[in-house]
Design brief:
The chain has about 80 residues and is mainly alpha-helical. The protein has one domain (about 15-75). Helices cover about 60% and strands about 0% of the residues. The protein has helices at about 15-30, 30-60, 65-75. The radius of gyration is 21 Å and the shape is elongated.
Length: about 80
């Protein structure tokens, strides 16, 4: 997905988190902004995956099968 122009955003963090962020930025030769952007991107992607999983669990029409049944349906092709 192409990146859009960034906009300023302010957040308050506990002092220890800021210290850890400073240390990580120095250790990885990245800016704190870069690290926070990546953390937010990762969180949003994982939250989207989590929401899909919850929606599927709540869908009474979506069949739930065991791993053994999945392997049977795939004809034993898993892991080979």
């Amino acid at each position: 997905m192409p990146r859009t122009a960034s906009v300023p955003f302010s957040v308050r963090l506990p002092r220890d988190d800021v210290k850890a962020l400073d240390e990580l930025a120095r250790a990885t030769d990245r800016t704190k902004t870069y690290l926070v952007q990546k953390a937010v991107e990762t969180y949003l992607a994982e939250h989207a995956d989590y929401q899909v999983a919850l929606d599927r669990l709540r869908d009474k029409g979506d069949e739930v099968i065991s791993s053994a049944e999945l392997r049977r349906r795939l004809g034993g092709r898993v892991g080979k």
